[in-house]
Specification:
Length: 158
Amino acid sequence: MELSVSEDIDAPAAAVWDRVTDFSMAEDMAKDRGVELTRAGNWTQAAQGVEWRGKVTVRGKTRKITSRIAHFAAEDTLVVNSTIGGMHTVYTVILVALSPQVTRATATLQVSATTLTARLILQTMKLARGRLADRLQGLLRRQGKAARAAHEKAMRSA
């Protein structure tokens, strides 16, 4: 299954990139949803190859999570590969500067399953495809608004 959404953001690509790669915020959001995550190797600087490990309860069973940044090209492309139980995901964010002050962000989520349980979960996700796309669009919109606000604040204080 693949979901793809785009959003035009009124902020430079650098500001949007800073928000998209704010992994501390993403980790906090995951923890708020009951996911236990730790940075493998206690890395502090995001880069290609860094990883997270953890666990989450899905349908009453605790499943292991591993995530790894597969591609990290500053102000351009971010690819995160994850495994949750028998499910594999690839989350891609691509930024394109439409002008010095406007950036188009495209987020794509690809999900595949390798176990029967994961296939059943994936089937349920396919039935809720519209709601999942709306949630992904909402995430991208919130990140865009936060990037615009941070950029405007930086411009006022400069």
